[in-house]
Amino acid sequence: MRPSMPTATTTVRSRFDGGRLERMARSYWRHRYLIAMFLPGFAVFALFAYGPLYGILIAFKDYSVIRGIGGSPWVGMANFTGLFSGPEFLHALRNTAIFAGLNIVVLFPAPIILALILSECRWKWFVRVVQTISYLPHFISWVVLAGILFQFFGQLGAVNAVLHVFGLPSQSWMYQPGKFYVIYVFSAIWAGIGWGAIIYIAALAGVDPELYEAARVDGASRLQRIRHVSLPGIAPTVSIMFLLQIAHFLAVGFDQIYNLMTPITQDSADILDTYVLRHVMSYDFSQGMAASLFQSVLGLLMVYIGNRVVRRLEPDQSLW
Amino acid sequence: MALNTATKIAADPGGDGVGTGRPAPVPRRGRRRSTGEWVADVLVVAVLSVLAIATLYPFLFELTISLSSAGDTQQPGLHILPMHPTVAAWHAVLSSSGILHAYLNTIVRTAAATAITLVLTAMMAYPLAQRTFPHRRVLNFLLLFSLLFSGGFIPLFLLVKNLGLLDSRWSLILPGAVGAMNVILMRNFFQAIPAELIDAARTDGASEMRILFTIVLPLSKPVLAVVGLWTALANWNAWFDALLYINDPHKQVLQMFIRNTVVTQANPILSGTNPGFLDSASTTQSLSAAAVMIATLPIIVLYPFLQKYFARGILLGSVKG
């Protein structure tokens, strides 16, 4: 039979009759079956979550596939100075900042507005139907969504057909660098607004119904109820989500952008991730790794700062 | 990260995990609603209807194009219904061997990855849920830190290459098999199971494996459903790993097949010209639309039934432990 869980007496005794090592060994032995159960999953996790960290070294080397990671010569910070010496990386950085700005200004408020509108609808079955429909694109890959959008916004697509009805000239939406931001925002709202609203709908469900009743009795109009009851009710959620959005500033949708971009729109669409991928495709691993590491470190820093702020405002919501 | 925020805020009186807003304000008997209220109601329904229609329309458009005759696809229009319906494009795509191969590869990959993920994740999460497990704090930190910092895809690619997994199906299954988020989700769920239950089984001499599989997991169906469904969906939709690791066309997955035939051809130079597998009954438009629809059909069909389980996941577990 397996020994039972440690009691107070066994813990106290082990403190006297054994050193740290012996206690460790005892604990390992006592948990030997659990450890055996733990190891297969942990091995896979550790291999693929921490194994790659060794490869980061190539950011400081001139990596060649033939010599391998260990055999390639060190070059110090040359790959990083290389990033900033040409316009390409700075361009990708600038574009990433533009998409991040669009995320914060346009894409962040959209689901909040949807949640508020949904909560104002009296027909609950209708709310359910709209919600179910609005989640759908979230479950479909950007490869497929982009395939659909290329036709929908295409020369013979529905968007141009609608423009035609209003007497407006048709556009080649997907093949103009300036239009890429329009496509980005529209497609991101299409794919993400319903799913993004879930968290705010849950927050609105937590607002005390008596507050609405009281506002009604006091003669508050519907907009006043939204302004003075709903919005304050979800304010904590909104501020936390906002901080998380800031913390993940650099994580603009790679799947979306990579599948929607064409050689013609690359100037507007090229972000850090696509920059890195392009260098991988041309076997320039070291330069790509330097860009990738720059992005990871900056990202970690932002998350760290973001979490510190969250911890001060709402300790319950912080990550650590 | 959103998971963390969601749980604590979520009050879910409906119990379906989605929450449909606060209870409907019941108009009092005898109290007449003003004209302004009626206008607002109509406006709300109108806005939501437009949103729902706008969300579905691109899918409908694509479906219609896939079922339209060659001539119709070359006409600009709203394409709400096919004017001369034909299954020629579907037939052409389904009879090309490429898509069936890709379909099979994706099914195999999805099934294998989901099974492996569920077993390994549960076996890793259960020991971590035991308060006395050695090095628990360090291990939990390793989980959390992996969510915050990674080297990106270059070092992962080099690792997969050095392990000799390039062009192997394992390269699509193993790297994502045990993710920190899933382990944390399961660990938190397991911790909420009453310890007396597990202690009683131990006293009766049950092995840890047996406790996990006969006591803990049957009580953990909600978390298993969430992790299993999200893993299956992620594998069905995955394309980037295949782009990096798979060259062999026989091992290519469905999403890459779609990307190669649809997105890469959606190029002004190619569109309208013959892209290879064109016949007189279909056009580039209808063929790529049919390929897209065929790849997406399983999700669209299953979606209404599974949707609530997915939504439940966002409100289920907290990241912190």
UniProtKB/TrEMBL annotation, chain A:
Record field: transmembrane: 33-60, 97-118, 139-163, 183-207, 228-251, 285-305
One GO CC annotation: plasma membrane
Sorted UniProt keywords: Cell membrane, Membrane, Transmembrane, Transmembrane helix, Transport
Main location class: membrane
Keyword Transport: yes
Biological processes, Gene Ontology terms: transmembrane transport
Intracellular or extracellular location(s): Cell membrane
Name of the featured protein: Carbohydrate ABC transporter membrane protein 1 (CUT1 family)
Organism: Kribbella rubisoli
Source taxonomy: Bacteria, Bacillati, Actinomycetota, Actinomycetes, Propionibacteriales
UniProtKB/TrEMBL annotation, chain B:
UniProt subcellular location: Cell membrane
A Pfam cross-reference name: BPD_transp_1
Transmembrane stretches, start-end: 38-60, 107-126, 138-160, 172-190, 211-233, 287-306
Disordered: annotated span: 11-32
Keywords, in A-Z order: Cell membrane, Membrane, Transmembrane, Transmembrane helix, Transport
tRNA processing as UniProt keyword: no
Any one cellular-component term (Gene Ontology): plasma membrane
One GO biological process term: transmembrane transport
Membrane topology: Multi-pass membrane protein
Domain ABC transmembrane type-1: 103-306
Family: Belongs to the binding-protein-dependent transport system permease family.
Protein name (Swiss-Prot/TrEMBL): Carbohydrate ABC transporter membrane protein 2 (CUT1 family)
Source organism per UniProt: Kribbella rubisoli
